[in-house]
Amino acid sequence: MSRPLLALAGVNTFYGAVQALKNVDLTVTEGEIVTLIGANGAGKSTLMMTLCGQPRARSGQIVYDGEDITTLPTHLIMRRGIAQAPEGRRIFPRMSVRENLIMGAESAGYRDYDADIARVFALFPRLDERQSQRGGTLSGGEQQMLAIGRALMARPRLLLLDEPSLGLAPLIVRQIFQAIRALNRETGLTVLLVEQNAFQALRLAHRGYVLVNGVITMSGPGAELLARPEIRAAYLEGGH
């Protein structure tokens, strides 16, 4: 296997005196979809935020594309080809769909803007239909599509997706996961996906990690984890 695009080694993160991540090791190779699953409060979003430098890892190392980014400021981390669609979407509600996408293109210097926005609209035709509509008036599913589209406008090598299915109807969840799969297959985009929806996430991912109370307890190919009885009992049979 080639050198990982992203590697966490022995990462420990704290909120004050409370330890949220404990000796976390995780790798993402270029071209992979890797998912991190776990119950609410397991530390999944903390891991995603630690990658982006807020909060900072207290110890351990985070390496991206061969460079140690553990202590870099957030704005410099995000300018290295990393883009995030955060939990809760965090779009600009008073801006139109097109204006939100323009904001996403800023870190890429607006190069190939027309081609990029056309690609987002091809991926999410609903956004094309609502180009002039304010972001805050979109449905939850449309806002999630917009958050992902805005991240894609930055032309990332690594896309971080934090709970993209949260609060959405099953049909919309399937559409969003199909779009992620298509992006990966057609462009080779590398994706790190944090999800409570273990079934959809493990079906999509090449590899997965299970996080329990800040500790990685299991890892392996997505299909293999999906078949494990302890995963099914904890996350797929009423334990979700």
Q: Can you tell me about this structure?
A:
With 240 residues, the chain is of the alpha/beta class. The protein folds into 2 domains: 4-81 and 157-236, P-loop containing nucleotide triphosphate hydrolases (Rossmann fold, 3-Layer(aba) Sandwich); 93-156. Helices cover 37% and strands 27% of the residues. The protein has helices spanning 44-51, 74-78, 97-104, 113-123, 125-129, 140-152, 170-187, 198-204, 222-227, 229-236, and strands at 4-15, 18-29, 33-37, 59-64, 67-68, 82-85, 158-162, 190-195, 207-212, 215-221. The strands form 2 sheets. Strands 6-7-8-3-9-10 form a 6-stranded mixed β-sheet, sandwiched between helices. Helix 3 (97-104) runs parallel beside helix 6 (140-152). The two termini are 32 Å apart. The model has no long low-confidence stretch (mean pLDDT 90).
Strand content: 25-35%
Any idea of the CATH class of the largest domain? Answer: Alpha Beta
- Assign a percent range to the helix content: 25-40%
Could you give the count of β-strands? Answer: 10
Based on helices, strands and strand pairing, what is the structural class? alpha/beta
H/I helix tally: 10
- Rg, rounded, reads 17 Å
User: What does the average pLDDT come to?
Assistant: 90
The SSE order reads EEEHEEHEHHHHEHEHEEHH
The CATH superfamily of the largest domain is P-loop containing nucleotide triphosphate hydrolases
Number of spatially distinct domains: 2
* Largest sheet, spatial ordering of strands: 6-7-8-3-9-10
Name the CATH architecture of the largest domain: 3-Layer(aba) Sandwich
